[in-house]
Here is the input.
Amino acid sequence: MTAYLLKRLIIAALTLVLASMVVFAVMEILPGDPARLMLGLNASADQVEMLRNQMGLNAPLVLRYLHWAGGLLSLDFGRSYTYSVPVIDLVRERIAVSLPLALIALALSTIIAIPVGVFSASRQGRAGDTLAMGAAQLGVAVPNFWFALMLIYLFAVWLHLVPAGGFPGWGAGIWTALKSLILPAVALALPQAAILGRVARSALIEVLNEDYIRTARAKGLPYRAVLWRHALRNAMIPVLTILGLQFAFLLAGTIIIENVFYLPGLGRLIFQAITQRDLIVVESIVMLLVAAVILINLLVDFSYAIVDPRLRGRQ
Amino acid sequence: MSLLEIENLSLTIGATPILKDVDLAIAPGEVVGLVGESGSGKSMTALTIMQLLPHLARTEGRVAFDGIDILGATEDQMCALRGDDIGMVFQEPMTALNPVKTIGEQVAEGIRWHTKAGRAEAEERTRKILDRVGLPEAKFPLSRYPHELSGGQRQRVVIAIACALKPKLLIADEPTTALDVVLQAQILDLLRDLVRENRMALLLISHDLAVVTEMADRLTILRRGEVTEAGETARTLSEQQHPYTRELALASMHVPARPKPHLAGSAKPLLDVEGVGRVYPGRRISLLRPTEPIRAVDDVSLTIEPAQSVALVGRSGCGKSTLARMILALDKPTAGTIRFRGEPITGKPEQALRPARRDMQVVFQDPYGSFDPRQKVEKLVAEPLHLLEKQPAKAERREMVANALHEVGLGPRDMDKYPHEFSGGQRQRLSIARAIITRPKLVVADEPVSALDVSIRAQILDLFAELNQKLGIAYLFITHDLTVARAMADEVLVMHEGKIVERGRAADVLDHPRSEAAQALVAAAPDLHRAIARKIQEQG
Here is the structure.
């Protein structure tokens, strides 16, 4: 077990290093000189050159990478070119919005998907299954920003239950803050839930045809008990895999959704940073997102070992 | 008074009739054998008693268990019966247990469900029953997972689950088919003891007439969903009144005719295996300790002459398949050399192996798994032709495929069909056609008839014998089934824990085994003649 976890941990760390190199390299290749951008169009070549020296942009590539990567490790992401404040300060505020949003959406999608999958699998081919899977098909197909707009229209404009957008900050009270995160979380979670629900259904159907399900039935357990006690845990393995893989899409979804709901999150920050060529902010946020995806997948790997005892003995 | 009474049971699934007017009765303490070939409806009869039939199944007739009308019972009533008064054991022990739950949990679950016992009490009873089926807690703690047990041990756990609450009826559906003969004998002994101890009734389902004869007081023979004959085991099998019963008995004991016997020492060896070994790195237990290597094959030497038929017999896990893979150059030995027609084949690049590959083909056990379902027979059978020096033109290729199909008793029209259009026996014919299309000198057959029904098995054995006589093909049969060795082999090699422990002429080794391993195999192998003789003595 420890060997398995250790190996996963090492792989995750290596992935992170590799990803940081790719991110850094891509930012190097991208056109747009940050020094020129900061100084504006009228700056002379000398002025730009001076600022480049000041910002360390003229140092050798490897050195600049090491400097940047070393900074990341000590949470020193550098200073934003446009706002002239440490990137970490910008990011810290935004994470307080984006992280809860992503986690709520992740939890919500799992909470919706698994019962739907169980429901559909246990009624395979019947009306309930067809209806649930039809809805899931729709959930996969409908773009989340359109769905978000519909949610705003229904719950904010019409029913006045929640605000239509913006974020009051956690200082305004947990409930108030949460209220403005509910709709975005639902809009993010639904397409994910639709995909997960379909995966859960097909995984369960496959597991329900296994020999050990028949053994459990022959023990006298009713169908429902067999489904929850024996089938579900075995079906969790593919569900967890998809959950980990989909998390990256969920994060990408926050960029759109935060814009729709006018939430001051990482998604909106990266969007602004890209339009303003604030490369250092872009780099930092991309690295944060990469780290989050790797972390979630590491957790998925760990939970495999919890679900499946056969993995524990393996390397 | 019967415990289970089945009268005029008919079953259809969708529009397909499965069973027709089946009658069967079992008294307490009685062992009834249900015999038939695949598709005869044996398992469906069992699942009807358990009411675990697939959707769309419709039953008619009467099934009464202990005074309860099974066909009319509610699901709640059935849940109360299953696992309590009726236990069931299945064919495939490797997949019959939930891989993510410990064996203790899986045995205790039924006990807790039916008796409402607390955790501690259920665990105590679990310990007792696991100990009873031969898995004492000292060696097999309740916290073991199924993947940490062998096939035979897993089947013991399944039996423990089924027998934990001392059922009145145990249904065992091919309980030993997936096990080697030694394990089979152990499991059958266990079932026999459980019947005796608890006056349990046993419905033993099997395609193996010898196994059923050894075990059953009475027999019911099913064919295409209908009972052809039923009665006391000894009388049914000694009188063999129904022609189908005779057919089954003859097929089980079938020995194909080989008029030209092979003369040992008559030619230079075709295959020469010399001191071959295969070591696998062992499983790492700790990061610090070095691993104990596993010697799957250990210093094995053997020769096969042209047209000679050799059987390599041994229990599962003895290394016989690993050896076969090395002979086929699919795996590299870690020691020794293998020569084919005098040329070493070990350590050669793939290109240099082509002539050897052409003359050495293989037939696998599973006629279902060894074909790509999306390709036509023409392409599948023609597959080894890429090994020829000169690639045949399309017309010539079809001609060669047609020939090969003809040799295995199939027609040229079968070329344009897909594998799923063939029965199991026909598919095994296809894999033999594929093996002989390059006119090989040696065919390695890994359990080639284990998955087949007895009548088809007899036909396939005949086919092997005929090809040996006609084309002079030498065989290496890899099997745990001694009747195959007896029927087909000139020479028998007994393998045990990676080593060849005994070798000699087939009749000598099988009739007078000298090594312990060979003796165990012979003693455990079911033999229909012996079993009938014993039953006649018992039942008068």
Q: What stands out?
A: Chain B touches chain A through 36 residues (CB under 8 Å). The first helix of chain B runs from residue 42 to 50. The mean pLDDT of chain B is 89.
